[in-house]
Each structure stands twice: as C-alpha cells, then as structure tokens.
Amino acid sequence: MRFVRFFVLVPSAITIAVDAFHDCVQSRRSSLKRRRRRPGRPSFSSDTSSPCSGGICVGMTDGPHQGGNASYPVAWNGTTGTRLEAFMTVPQYPKALDGITYYIWTDIFFGDESLGRMNQLVPQLLLGSVLDESTGPPDYKPKWHTHATWMFGAHYFFETLNLTTMKTESHAAYGPLFPAYPGEKVYTLFEMILEGTQDDADTTSNKTSYVTDSFFPIWTLTMQVVGDPARMSILPIRHPYMGMGRNGPRPSYSWFEPNFQHLCLNSCWELYGAIDAEHLPTSGAVYNLTITQPKQEHSHAYYDFTTWEQDEGNGICPSCRVEEHHSRDTQQVNIEIQVV
Ligand SMILES: *[C@@H]1O[C@H](CO)[C@@H](O)[C@H](O)[C@H]1NC(C)=O
Ligand SMILES: *[C@@H]1O[C@H](CO)[C@@H](O)[C@H](O)[C@H]1NC(C)=O
Ligand SMILES: *[C@@H]1O[C@H](CO)[C@@H](O)[C@H](O)[C@H]1NC(C)=O
Ligand SMILES: *[C@@H]1O[C@H](CO)[C@@H](O)[C@H](O)[C@H]1NC(C)=O
Ligand SMILES: *[C@@H]1O[C@H](CO)[C@@H](O)[C@H](O)[C@H]1NC(C)=O
C-alpha cells in the first residue's frame, strides 16, 4: 500500500524556530580524536605548526562545528523523504603512509536521545590505521586495521554513555568494505525509507506514537564506486544506536524521536598524522552534494537552506573552494579541496 497522506516528521520547515532547540550534536574534537586516532600515533595535525598539514572540513554556515545551531528538517511527503547524494573523487596517495589515520567522508548527523552521545552516519574512504570493523551485536565495538591502499564502506559511528563506568564508549556498524583507487569517483547516498504502511501507525494520538514495531523510518546508507555496482556497500540503520538505546532509562529506538527530526551535514578530510606535506594526499579532491527535500503538497514553502563554508582546518594547505546554490527543495554544494 502506498502512502497517500502528507506528513513531515516536523510539522513544517517553517516552524523550526518554534521547536528552537539545537539538536545536532558534534562530539568535541578532543574526544573524537581520542577515539578515532590510533593511540600512540600523531595527533590531528591542524594542531601542528607545519603550514601544509592537517585535515579540512566544510559544512553548513553556523553549524555545530562553529558552535551554531543550523540544521535541516527531516521530512517525508508520503512517497519521498529527505535525501543526500554526494560524489567525491579519490585522492592520490600521500608519499608517506607511516602513522596516518585517514577518514574521508560526507556525513549526516543527529542530536542524541537517552544515553547516546554521538550519532553520525558516515560512509567513508579509509587509509592507514583505522577503525573499519565492528564486533556487531550486542556491543558494536569498533576494531582497528591497517590499510596501505584506499578502502571504503558504509558506516555508522555512535557513542553511548555506559552507566556502569560513566564513560562515553564508541560503537560502530559497517556495510562491507571494498577497495577504491586514486582518481575514481565514489558515490554516497543517504536515504530515509519508511518501513510498513501508515495503516500500521497509531495516528490517533501525537507524533511520538507513530512508533510501532511495523511502521518506522530506516536510514539507509549506500556507498559505491561510480560505474562499478559490484563495489557497493549498503548499511540499513533500522534503529538509532543499532537498538542499543532500547535499554536506557529513557529508551530510544526510533528515528521518529524528537532529536532525530533535524540533521546536520559536513564533508571532511578527517586526517590524523598528516603532520606535513609528505603525509598529505598528493592531490586534492572534488565533491558535489545534492540535498533534496520532498515537495510539500499544497505548499509553496521554501526550506531553510544555509550557505556553506570551510569550518575546520588551517584553510591554507589543504585549502578549499566552496559554492552553494539552492532552489525551493534542492541544495547543490560544490567543494574543491586543493593540496599545494
Ligand atoms: C539559532 O539560534 C539563534 C540565536 O540564538 C536563534 O535566533 C535561532 O532561532 C536558532 N535557530 C534554530 C533553528 O534553532
Ligand atoms: C559497560 O561497561 C561494563 C564494564 O566495563 C561492561 O561490562 C558493559 O558491557 C558495558 N556496557 C555496554 C552496553 O557496553
Ligand atoms: C504524546 O507523547 C508524549 C511523549 O511520549 C506522551 O507522554 C503523551 O501521553 C502523548 N499524548 C497523547 C495524547 O497520546
Ligand atoms: C556530481 O558529480 C558527478 C560525478 O562527477 C556527476 O556525474 C554529477 O553530474 C555531478 N552532479 C552535479 C549536480 O553537478
Ligand atoms: C514528494 O516529493 C517528491 C520529490 O520532491 C515528488 O516527486 C513527489 O511528487 C512528492 N509526492 C507527493 C505525494 O507530494
């Protein structure tokens, strides 16, 4: 059965200001570094003084990287939901691979519910000593491996507070890993799909009670090499925190929950150990992102798209150029990263 009735996960794009809370949470750079950088290896190199070093991030103006609250509503119009498609080129290898941990990606991320502390949908390109595998249920602990050539896969990274230790612990889920080669183009799709039919939903009360076991949204991540469908990594995320949030004092297990109703986006070269030009990719990369919001029937509303800009990294080397334009429902972002 098809959905015929229009609804959005938030009442409408126009009413965001009324909701008025900042629900995309970016883990502090220092805590991310602690968990994603291989212990004992050099630091995120924008900390270093070398003029040609470190990573770079591009994101929504006034987004969480900048301490701001910019975010986009997650919407569904009965047939289509909010989606993001991104293309990027695979850069040339660095001259020196020792000590590096590279994660290169376009992500979407959400706020937290319950014991969640980080909630990032991040299919990524990998190089060096990286987190690239998960123990799977029930703990979803990430595991380290070392790669001397590019690999990629769909990936969900999240953190939860462990009430026994009172420590924030990282968790991950992965689609299959595949190799990628310099100069190739990699495509990433983030898509919200509704499982079940609206007949299965409890629509008699409020939004929260849409949540039933047979009607819920699934975020599906797909990453593949353009022109080679055999190298395609898919990860459907049926429940936030892969269901680990079910057991908290305030259980969380549906993407319908309030703090998942807005999302934030970034594209990053998250490079650890890129301490100098030798440890940076020897070429830049080109990205393009298309963010599409579903058309709202009987509405001429515009979605609130922000501008985009570089928000992390020294911006000198690597440097980047960012341009953005949008219509009512679609935003196009083009990014060109250069290593000089
Ligand atoms: C973001 O914060 C500003 C300043 O505090 C506020 O005026 C604005 O309504 C907020 N926007 C959202 C989307 O919450
Ligand atoms: C929390 O930490 C305890 C003690 O280290 C561990 O036994 C338990 O598995 C952890 N819980 C989760 C959900 O990871
Ligand atoms: C709406 O949802 C809230 C939060 O789950 C719940 O406490 C309340 O009872 C619900 N209201 C109705 C009318 O079902
Ligand atoms: C984005 O890049 C891909 C790969 O180069 C290209 O096929 C596509 O047309 C581009 N999209 C836009 C909107 O420029
Ligand atoms: C939902 O949005 C999509 C994309 O904007 C559009 O093609 C489709 O016609 C819309 N469906 C409804 C029922 O409005």
Automatic annotation (TrEMBL):
Sorted UniProt keywords: Signal
Start-end of Low complexity biased regions: 41-55
Residue numbers spanned by region Disordered: 31-57
Biased composition (Basic residues): 31-40
Residues of the signal peptide: 1-20
Protein name as it appears in the record: Uncharacterized protein
Organism: Nitzschia inconspicua
